[in-house]
Amino acid sequence: MTARRFTGRHMLAAMLGFFGIIIAVNFTMAWFASSTFGGTVVDNSYVASQKYNQWLAAARAQEALGWTVAMTLDPARHVEVTASLPATRVTGTATHPLGRLPEQALAFVQTGEGRYRATTPLPPGRYLVRIIVDAEGTRAGFQQDVPA
């Protein structure tokens, strides 16, 4: 039995196979990345970086107030808010994390002491809910992930 020689054709086939697999994987990963990315986080990262310290100071001031807010979904998918402060107005938005669905504006009605319920239900899916609470002449913002 004679051994087969390794020729230039064998080397060419090995190189084409090796690089073909790498290129196919790269194109597949690039397609997945571009098809699942919903958009930008901020429009201008330089401007956002300049406002970062202001955002931290506002967050510290809000935290010093000691206000807390909890958000849940009822069975009909209405966002329910329980606040530790007497709010005069609660508004909000629900954003799909990947930006695939349009942002939903939320209006709330008071259902009890410190309890508020959105007037419209959320469509199925996971959302980042941001609410603004106006109370005692102060405005506070809160956000929370609401599961699917």
UniProtKB/TrEMBL annotation:
Q: Which UniProt keywords apply?
A: Membrane, Transmembrane, Transmembrane helix
Membrane-crossing segments per the record: 12-33
Entry annotated with the keyword Transmembrane helix: yes
The protein in question is named Nitrogen fixation protein FixH
- The species this protein was found in: Polymorphobacter multimanifer
